[in-house]
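Progress report, Aim 2. The chain analyzed during this reporting quarter is listed below.
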Amino acid sequence: MGIKILIIGGVAGGASAAARLRRNSEEDQIVMFEKGPHVSFSNCSLPYHLSGVIKEAEELVLVNPKMFLKQYNIDARVNSEVISIDRNNKSVTVKRTDSGEEYTETYDKLILSPGAAPVLPNIPGIENVNLFTVRNVVDIDKLNQFVKQIDTKDVAVIGGGYVGVEVVENLSQFGYNVSLIEATNQILRPFDYDMVQIFHKVLVDHNVNLIVEDKVERFEKNSVVLASGKKVSASAVVMAIGVSPETHLAKEVGLEIGETGAIKVDKNYQTNDADIYAVGDAIEVYHELTHSMTKLSLAGPALKQARSVADHINKKTTVNKGYIGSSAIKVFEFNGASTGLNEALIKANNLKINYNIVRLILIDRVKIMPESSMMHFKLLFEVPTGKILGAQAIGKGDVTKRIDVIATAIKFGATVDDLKDLELCYAPPFSTAKEIANYAGYVGSNLLNGDYKQVNVDKVRELVENNNTIIDVREYDEYEMGHIKGAKNIPLSEFRERMNEIPKDKPVYINCKTGMKSYNAVMALQNAGYTDVYNITGSFLGLSFYEYYNDKFMNKESIVTDYNFM
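Predicted structure tokens for the chain:
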């Protein structure tokens, strides 16, 4: 005999749990409640409606209630908000948002998948602007309809997370004058500060008014006033500073809330009530690398959690190894992906991890292929074990392929030595014969073995200001197009004949375009008896991206004669 299962929330986690429950049993009665007018819509695709990539708002809806009923025999009820839970009588009270009607529904098992709501701080003057958030199809349709009617085309987006940046990109592509306001010193926190500067440059190259390290102080009529005193014109304001887990129902009925403020669940995603489960943005999960609880607003983990819940309800074995957090984003012509830990996360959580980094800039496919381009790659590994901790990639090509390899390696406990031996697919239109993951393994192993020393591009300004010895091993024409101020040019083609020009009694820092030629120069110097020599990893191309935005928009004196982005 089947049981009755109620699901609160009909998007990623809820809809996935419902479908898996039906695959597990034809006997169970499954009822799913969604307070909005749509179930199973593509949350992550919402911003792409603004640019017309997704032309009609209805295209965002993947499955409607009729299809759920016909194909899966699942009773999906839209415009139905669960307003209370009675744990003693195992029932919920449902309110029809379109009619106000209330009724009661009993359950044997209850799954909470309410998601998270956009954070809306109480900023003075908020009533003076046309304010929008992006959470569902109704939200994005309202925003899209409104901006099409405004005359000035000035839109401000507050918050530089994934949603904020995607909204900015899509509005900008459709011709709006967009300002992106971020209170901290960078957008897109899954990327370290040295990597995210690439995205800072991309945004300003596309005429986005990017403002960082400036907080919204108040709103005036159609404008945003910042702490610096700057005023930003805005006929529409999109608030995207983050989300807060929907926990009010859980709190009201005494379900335990975890240390992060989200719903606490066990390894099977059960709450402290054995008949109530929770999944998705509303819960906290175990981070496999920080060994602590965290909130993870990502669709992939929500779907995995939903499957585990459905299986546990149906007495199937489930596995929960924790999460590492893998994500990707498109910012105009550049793509980004990240997985695991980054330096900022390690420092923010005060993790006692001894680590080193690999910083590479490599061609993403055979150079003569017409669509080949440079890819920026950063990998973190533990010292002395070599265990891979995380990675980030940014470029015009397929960054997700590279980060997926690293994410898989992390889940299997791989080290940088393991990366050297990976056999990955190769053909000139797709990649190079030695892939980026292989190179990361080579470099990481060399660093782990102490074969040479390096400094990252974020340390170069300090080197210049302290008048350190920097040698540029690019050829003369490359050097003349732009170089580090004070750097001496000794091309690699002349390097062995001119080593006597390089001092042995002080630290020496070598750069080229990407760090490859300079690595060869470092090894040549070491073989000649030099002991205090460093490769500038990322080299001049990485340094140009790193310094550009701060030089141009934060009024810093440039440490390069000109930039090189090719």
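The chain is about 25% helix and 25% strand. The mean pLDDT is 96. These observations will guide the mutagenesis work planned for the next reporting period.
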